Amino acid sequence: MTTTQRSVTHRVALTVVTTIFFMWGFLTCLNDILIPHLKSVFELNFARAMLVQFTFFGAYFLMALPAERLVARLGYKNGIVAGLAIAGIGALGFWPAAELRVYSAFLGALFVLATGITVLQVAANPYVSLLGPERSASSRLTLAQAFNSLGTAIAPLIGGWLILSNTVMSGDQLAQLPQAEQVAYRVQEAQSVQGPYLGLAVVLFLLAVFVFLFRLPSLTEATEKGDAGHHHTLGEALRHPHVAFGVLAIFFYVGAEVSIGSLMVNYFSMPQIGGFSEAQATHYVSAYWTMAMIGRFIGSALLAKISPRLLLSLFALVNALLLIVSVSTTGMVAVYSLVAIGLFNSIMFPTIFALGIERLGPLTGRASSLLVMAIVGGAIVPYLQGQLADHIGLHPSFLLPALCYLYIVFYGVWGSRLRGELAKEAGA
């Protein structure tokens, strides 16, 4: 295959894979709508409501290594197909969960759905990174993540319309109804998620068939298949400091991003902040994710000209300052400063990921699985912020993600630097 033919094939493959990024962004961000909905239906406190994210992102930690082994066995393309199919099964699980009206059943369906997305993350992120020169990997991943952000921007609007459009009764209002009407109300609210998730299951299965039939290029140069006779361990990858620090950077970044998005509806509904209804607040959640989408399109161009390490550090510092502003103020200043964080979140995940697997060759697969495992930050940090919100209040609890962004400043400035032989290779 000529260089020109390979370039065209890679561009087509990148186009196909970006649709997968869109889909898992949409699915992930629906949790931001599901949390306030289930919180009201099951009368949960903040900590228990955040078990949605704990379950969803906990799957990344538990399933990343099995997913990496699955992708190593199946290859990137079939790994993507498997991830879509597993996610589709999880989405189907919302139907019986709603019939049972049991919170743990919803969490079980979410775990299966998240397992599918974990497989997609393990397969698609390094695949996109390999679809072209290593020097432009951050730019390519940021572009693909821009379509992920398009999914996250649309999800709150569609989810809010389908799931949160009806006025949710408070516990006191519900207690005033006759017992039969209370049961009927809870059945109706629980079942409002069935249609949306059934539709998503159909789309996921159709995508799996499409990708299976589509001829994607096979890339093995950065896998153990491309290094026959050698079995590489996670420890080998972690011996590289930019990988180890990168794992923590992904942990804190995803934790901060998910925590902010998960609590936005409740935060913007507070009388001293926005005083919005839950349905109205979803428009600002959508704006938050739209800012991330816009930032990724802009960031993809910026990263082609500016050092990824420098841009990452600056954006993380701005986000820490925006959170301090939101915590220190009330009204629309607090609202807009939180929404603006989406813009500066834009480049963080793809940039950290690309820096974390830089120049690793056949260790790329192992490092990728570690970075995907670190997405468990989306389970831990939101739960911790939920506990803080229950004890000190929702408003001041947003200082926790500010600390997460300060670590990312450190990673951009120092933690992501190549060391030893890798630094010599980079300078050669």
TrEMBL record:
The chain crosses the membrane at residues 12-34, 46-67, 79-97, 103-123, 143-164, 197-216, 243-265, 285-303, 310-327, 333-355, 367-385, 397-414. CDD domains: MFS_FucP_like. It comes from the Bacteria. Keywords: Cell inner membrane, Cell membrane, Membrane, Sugar transport, Transmembrane, Transmembrane helix, Transport. The keyword Endoplasmic reticulum does not apply. Intake of glucose and galactose. This is MFS transporter. PANTHER family: L-FUCOSE-PROTON SYMPORTER, PROTEIN TSGA. InterPro entries: Glc/Gal_transptr_bac (IPR005964), Lfuc_symporter_FucP (IPR005275), MFS (IPR011701), MFS_dom (IPR020846), MFS_trans_sf (IPR036259), MFS_TsgA-like (IPR050375). Residues 13-419 form the Major facilitator superfamily (MFS) profile domain. NCBIfam families: fucP, gluP. It comes from Xanthomonas boreopolis. Belongs to the major facilitator superfamily. FHS transporter (TC 2.A.1.7) family. It is found in: Cell inner membrane. It is a multi-pass membrane protein. One of its GO terms (biological process) is D-glucose transmembrane transport. Pfam families: MFS_1. The keyword Chloroplast does not apply. GO terms for molecular function: D-glucose transmembrane transporter activity; fucose:proton symporter activity; galactose transmembrane transporter activity. One of its GO terms (cellular component) is plasma membrane.
